[in-house]
Amino acid sequence: MAEPSLALRGVERRYRTEAGELPVLRGADLDLRAGEIVALVAPSGTGKSTLLHVAGLLEKPDAGQVLVEGRDSGRLGDDDRTALRRGTIGFVYQFHHLLPEFTAEENVVLPQLAASRGRREAEARARELLSAFGLDHRRDHRPGRLSGGEQQRVAIARALANGPKVLLADEPTGNLDVGTADLVFTELLEAVRGRGLAALIATHNPELAARMDRTVTLRDGYVVGG
Ligand SMILES: Nc1ncnc2c1ncn2[C@@H]1O[C@H](COP(=O)(O)OP(=O)(O)OP(=O)(O)O)[C@@H](O)[C@H]1O
């Protein structure tokens, strides 16, 4: 069978707090395969964001491995790990995290420039993506002038800008009203399925989880159901 797009092997992550050490992940294992959309559903505070940040190479695990298409990210230096993240992983946050002083288009262009794509090509790709999310008329607007749903659509377009293999999302529609959440979530699923990506999407909403291929949860620092 082909290599998983993303694999966690025995991942541990603990935080130092005033009350002592807090072990959040104690040995998390997970395989995400191309074309597979997995829901991450677990109670608040059990480590969903931590798992996503470690899986997305935004935080390093204290032990264990994060393998991206078979490459052990722990063996890479900072620059190579950043390049691997930029080229293979798209991340969508609950709150859009767009850069407020840049237009919608620039927000989708910038990560491409960071990944060494030329400006002209990056702009063409940003326009294509924004158009696919129905945002042609919002291209030149800054995030503050966009609705919550539009902001999240731009954030999704940005996550897809470098043609990732894996999409990770932390409550991507958790900040939207029910109707908008449903629409944006549908567009997100279509974008992920249409591109054959592997995806891990944290949600508190069982109806959204039911629309994904399978569900995993976190219990005592382990992934259950993965
Ligand atoms: N940087 C940090 N330093 C110290 N403790 C942290 C840090 N980040 C997270 N934690 C703690 O780790 C635990 C897991 O947090 P995390 O945000 O991963 O949970 P979560 O399942 O995503 O929660 P929620 O559903 O509320 O977003 C919590 O107890 C949190 O307070």
TrEMBL record:
Q: Which residues form a coiled coil?
A: none
Q: Which Pfam families would you find in this protein's record?
A: ABC_tran
Please cite one Gene Ontology biological process associated with this protein: protein localization to outer membrane
Which EC main class describes this enzyme?
Answer: hydrolase
Q: Where do the ABC transporter domain residues begin and end?
A: 6-224
The record's annotation in PROSITE patterns points to: ABC_TRANSPORTER_1 (PS00211), ABC_TRANSPORTER_2 (PS50893)
Could you name the domain of life of the organism this protein comes from?
Answer: Bacteria
GO molecular-function term, one example from the UniProt record: ATP hydrolysis activity
GO CC terms for this protein? plasma membrane
- Tell me its EC number(s), please: 3.6.3.-
Q: Which Gene3D superfamilies match?
A: P-loop containing nucleotide triphosphate hydrolases
The UniProt entry's sequence similarity note says:
Belongs to the ABC transporter superfamily.
What is the protein named?
Answer: Lipoprotein-releasing system ATP-binding protein
Originating organism:
Muricoccus pecuniae
